[in-house]
């Protein structure tokens, strides 16, 4: 597939994630939209890795491992996302315990 | 000796510094000695300079002290010019000044030592400025002295500063001077622009090539400055109010010297005025009108100093009339004789005021001849001199001016003669009411009456002699040929004007007729005044009515100025203060602060603490950045 | 249209649709479920690109672990559609507009790139295979691999500490 298709797809999913973050007030939903954005980026990275691999194959480089780093990078993104989710959810649970709500608007302490 | 001319203003300057800086520590006797000795020293040097100038074949000398302003091609040196005109004025200023200093030593004796020293410091500063004025070799030094005498006039009029009315009088004098000075400055700028220099020698050498309109413009501007300084219409109202100052100050500044600065300036620039006959016409008319106006007001005044003040304005009008008809020598002659008899009259008035314990209303005086003979007879000589009765000095100088006026235009002569008659009338009214008849004051005042001490009567006697004999320096042609000493002395100064427009006198026969007619009329009016007022008693002191009331209220000129100029200006100032200043400028400046505060308050709302809002702004920021980076 | 293309289009539409459903559903449980479907379709894309390892890891870690965790938390708080707070209408509109602008700008920026005619290889290629990935991971990137285990440890400790009752 021409790489442009993957680029557009990833951009669309990313922007949907952004809209979700801006639109929703529930902290958990916002968190989920962040995960959506991360996935869009992952998809794009994998597509680029295949593109570079195809280029090197067409230049007749034998046993090329050109796009491997990108996929490993995606792997590490997933690692970090997992860690982040666990800590983030712990914070949200703490917030719920203190204010009995997951409304982001209650967290306006930054004003002071 | 003329190289040492800088000593003449230097001595009074030193006197000013010593008396001014040491006024808290100096005893009164030392103050008066320092103050008077400096003027005496200047007088001695002036006499020596005069002797040198008098010699046959003397050429004007310029003594340069230092470069005052030197920018590119513009060179204004601080230099003094020694010639016949300045030498004559030097003598008048230092001579009469010295007499007045001696008089002041006794007159101001009741002041506390610091104020006594302040007085003498100011007086010395005044003499210094006046000497700068007459000695300067260019218009800028003249102007420095011009401003300096204006300043000293303000300081001395408001000498008793605790009285607010005196302060207003001083302020009025200074401000009216300033109005004239503005025109004067513009005139100097124009001279600079036209001739590239302000030095007398350079300007007067190149004057002949200029167009009449330029000359008329420059001379008119300079003359407006002279109307301010020498109290002519329309800027004369400060002089009567200036009588708030001590009497010796009135004598020196407002009779003998400062007010003659305008005449000196025009006499010095005579070639420019000869080339602008239109301005000369204006000068003559204004001088004549001033003379008549002031004389009419003087008739109805009851304050001894006010009568003399209006008399001064009137006599200055005569001097300007002389300048306007081309009688330059006559005007300078009248300056000299006026200095003598007006100073004499003022000092005599001061003596009377002292004796009366401060009373200045002549309706409450009378019969003082018994108590103050010296003052009485010197005052009488002054009156006769100012009235213009032969053979006293006023006769010769006034006669010269009037005969030149007749040759110019007989109408000028007739009006001038009318003014002279008024002069005689009010002067003899003053003399009669003050010294003759019965005493009309209180009992306490009568006990206090005494002749003044020698320090006061001495200068009176000297001035009386000068007033009596001074006229013989200027005996006109038709009485004795070639006897006009003053004219011969001053002829080099006015030579270039003479070449252009020879001064005209009427034929000798006409002059004899005019003289005898005027003399008889003046004598007649004097006797009439004497007879009318010698029987004056307190019962005659009634309220003035009708025309007399207008005269007593000075033709309501002050009230006119107040309504037409002062009140609108005050209203304008009030408008500028309340509207432009408070609302406009303050509003603008405060508005900047308020706008900043408002803006910060609005921007502060961005910090809502809501994370969602922050993320929104972040996204917007990223969008803007991408647009800027990729598309711009 | 080859089968690959058809599959690509089906998967793309599914992904976008489920992402839209995630952000618009009021009930948070439904949002979670739609997100799981989105992850599934993305894994489908990975398989299409022959990134086999990543496809499996995506399903196991993301759809399996992370989404289940989300679901647990939602159940814990007993959230349902009624309790859902709603943002101010204007702010929602502003958010949509901002996101839309971002979309437009990114598309416009990337439209002109030189990559227009480059192709991502689908249905082939050996780099997605697990043994090739493993070779590179354990030869060149073994240190980040070990450090990520420390990362997990710190995340665990952090979560425990934050979640403590007192």
Features:
B: 632 residues, mainly alpha, 3 domains, C: 166 residues, Four Helix Bundle (Hemerythrin (Met), subunit A), 0% strand
Helix content of chain A: over 70%
| Tally of DSSP helical segments of chain A | 3
Name given to the CATH architecture of chain A: Orthogonal Bundle
Name of the CATH class of the largest domain in chain C: Mainly Alpha
Main sheet: strands, sense, barrel of chain C = none
Chains forming the largest contact? A-C, 77 and 83 residues
Low-confidence residue ranges of chain C: none
Distance between the termini of chain A: 52 Å
Low-confidence stretches of chain A: none
Rg of chain A, nearest Å = 19 Å
Shape estimate of chain A: elongated
Strand content of chain A: under 5%
Q: What is the mean pLDDT of chain A?
A: 86
Predict the CATH topology of chain A.
Answer: Helix Hairpins
- How helix-rich are the residues of chain C, as a percent range? over 70%
Number of domains of chain C: 2
The number of E-state strands of chain C comes to: 0
Question: What's the order of the H and E elements of chain A?
Answer: HHH
Question: What class, by secondary structure content of chain C?
Answer: mainly alpha
How would you name the oligomeric state of the polypeptide chains in this document? Answer: heterotrimer
Give structural notes.
The complex is a heterotrimer of chains A (112), B (632) and C (166). With 112 residues, chain A is mainly alpha-helical. Chain A has one domain (3-103): Helix Hairpins. Chain A has helices at 3-23, 27-58, 68-99. The longest helix of chain A is centred in the middle third of the chain and has 32 residues, at 27-58. Chain A starts with a helix and ends in a 13-residue tail after the last helix. Chain B has a two-stranded antiparallel sheet with strand order 1-2. Chain B folds into 3 domains: 1-137; 163-364 and 372-540, no CATH class; 561-631. Chain B is mainly alpha-helical and 632 residues long. Chain C is mainly alpha-helical and 166 residues long. Chain C contains 6 helices and no strands. The mean pLDDT of chain C is 87. Classes of the chains: A mainly alpha (112), B mainly alpha (632), C mainly alpha (166). Chains B and C meet through helix 26 of B and helix 4 of C.
């Amino acid at each position: 597939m021409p790489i442009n298709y993957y680029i557009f797809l990833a951009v669309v999913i990313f922007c949907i994630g952004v809209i979700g973050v801006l639109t929703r007030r529930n902290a958990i939903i916002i968190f989920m939209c962040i995960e959506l954005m991360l996935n869009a980026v992952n998809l794009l990275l994998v597509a680029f890795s295949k593109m570079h691999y195809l280029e090197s194959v067409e230049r007749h480089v034998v046993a090329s491992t050109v796009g491997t780093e990108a996929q490993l990078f995606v792997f590490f993104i997933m690692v970090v996302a997992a860690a982040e989710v666990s800590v983030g959810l712990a914070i949200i649970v703490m917030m719920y315990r203190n204010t009995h709500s997951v409304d982001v608007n209650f967290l306006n302490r930054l004003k002071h | 000796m003329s190289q040492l001319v800088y000593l003449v203003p230097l001595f009074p300057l030193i006197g000013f510094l010593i008396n001014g800086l040491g006024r808290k520590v100096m005893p009164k006797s030392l103050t008066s000695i320092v103050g008077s000795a400096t003027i005496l020293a200047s007088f001695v040097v002036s006499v020596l300079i005069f002797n040198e100038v008098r010699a046959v074949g003397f050429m004007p000398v310029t003594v340069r002290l230092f470069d005052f302003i030197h920018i590119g091609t513009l060179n204004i040196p601080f230099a003094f010019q020694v010639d016949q005109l300045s030498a004559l004025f030097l003598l008048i200023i230092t001579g009469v000044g010295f007499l007045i200093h001696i008089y002041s030593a006794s007159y101001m004796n009741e002041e506390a030592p610091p104020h006594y020293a302040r007085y003498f410091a100011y007086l010395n500063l005044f003499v210094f400025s006046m000497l700068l004025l007459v000695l300067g070799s260019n218009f800028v030094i003249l102007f420095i002295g011009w401003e300096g005498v204006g300043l000293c006039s303000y300081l001395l009029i408001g000498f008793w500063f605790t009285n607010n009315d005196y302060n207003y009088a001083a302020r009025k004098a200074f401000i009216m001077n300033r109005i004239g000075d503005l025109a004067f400055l513009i005139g100097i700028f124009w001279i600079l622009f036209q001739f590239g220099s302000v030095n007398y020698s350079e300007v007067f050498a190149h004057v002949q090539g200029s167009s009449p309109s330029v000359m008329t413009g420059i001379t008119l501007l300079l003359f407006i400055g002279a109307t301010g300084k020498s109290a002519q219409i329309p800027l004369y109202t400060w002089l009567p109010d200036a009588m708030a100052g001590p009497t010796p100050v009135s004598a020196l500044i407002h009779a003998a010297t400062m007010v003659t600065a305008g005449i000196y300036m025009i006499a010095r620039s005579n070639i420019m005025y000869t080339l602008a006959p239109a301005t000369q016409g204006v000068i003559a008319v204004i001088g004549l009108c001033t003379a008549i106006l002031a004389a009419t007001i003087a008739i109805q005044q009851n304050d001894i100093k006010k009568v003399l003040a209006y008399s001064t304005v009137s006599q200055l009008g005569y001097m300007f009339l002389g300048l306007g008809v081309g009688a330059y020598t006559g005007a300078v002659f009248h300056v000299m004789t006026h200095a003598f008899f007006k100073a004499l009259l003022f000092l005599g008035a001061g003596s009377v005021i002292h004796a009366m314990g401060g009373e200045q209303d002549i309706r409450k005086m009378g019969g003082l001849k018994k108590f103050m003979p010296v003052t009485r007879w010197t005052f009488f000589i002054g009156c006769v001199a100012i009235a213009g009765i032969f053979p006293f000095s006023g006769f010769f100088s006034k006669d010269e001016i009037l005969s030149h006026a007749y040759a110019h235009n007989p109408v000028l002569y007739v009006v001038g003669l009318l003014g002279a008659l008024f002069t005689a009338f009010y002067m003899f009214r003053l003399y009669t009411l003050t010294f003759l008849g019965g005493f009309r004051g209180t009992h306490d005042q009568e006990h206090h009456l005494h002749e003044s001490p020698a320090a006061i009567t001495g200068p009176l006697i000297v001035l009386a002699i000068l007033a009596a004999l001074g006229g013989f320096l200027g005996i006109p042609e038709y009485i004795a040929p070639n006897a006009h000493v003053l004219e011969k002395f001053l002829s080099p100064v006015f030579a270039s004007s003479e070449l252009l427009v020879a001064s005209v006198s009427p034929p000798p026969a006409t002059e004899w007729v005019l003289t005898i007619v005027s003399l008889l009329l003046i004598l007649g009016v004097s006797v009439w005044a004497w007879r009318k007022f010698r029987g004056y008693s307190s019962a005659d002191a009634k309220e003035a009515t009708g025309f007399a009331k207008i005269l007593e209220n000075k033709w309501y000129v002050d009230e006119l100025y107040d309504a037409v100029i002062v009140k609108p200006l005050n209203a304008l100032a009030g408008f500028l203060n309340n509207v432009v200043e408070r609302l406009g400028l303050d509003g603008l400046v405060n508005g900047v602060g308020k706008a900043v505060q408002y803006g910060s308050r609005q921007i502060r709302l961005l910090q809502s603490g809501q994370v969602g809002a922050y993320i929104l702004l972040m996204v917007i920021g990223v969008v803007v950045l991408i647009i800027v980076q990729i598309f711009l | 249209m080859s089968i690959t293309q058809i599959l690509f289009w089906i998967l793309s539409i599914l992904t976008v649709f489920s992402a839209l459903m995630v952000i618009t559903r009021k009930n948070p449980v439904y949002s979670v479920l739609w997100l799981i479907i989105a992850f599934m379709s993305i894994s489908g894309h990975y398989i299409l690109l022959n990134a086999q390892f990543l496809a499996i890891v995506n399903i196991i870690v993301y759809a399996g672990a992370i989404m289940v965790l989300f679901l647990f938390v939602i159940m814990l708080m007993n959230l349902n559609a009624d309790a859902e707070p709603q943002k101010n209408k204007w702010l929602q509109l502003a958010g949509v507009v901002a996101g839309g602008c971002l979309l437009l700008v990114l598309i416009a920026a990337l439209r002109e790139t030189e990559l227009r005619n480059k192709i991502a290889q689908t249905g082939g290629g050996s780099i997605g295979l697990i043994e090739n990935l493993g070779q590179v991971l354990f030869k060149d990137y073994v240190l980040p691999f070990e450090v990520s285990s420390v990362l997990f440890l710190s995340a665990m400790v952090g979560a425990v500490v934050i979640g403590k009752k007192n």
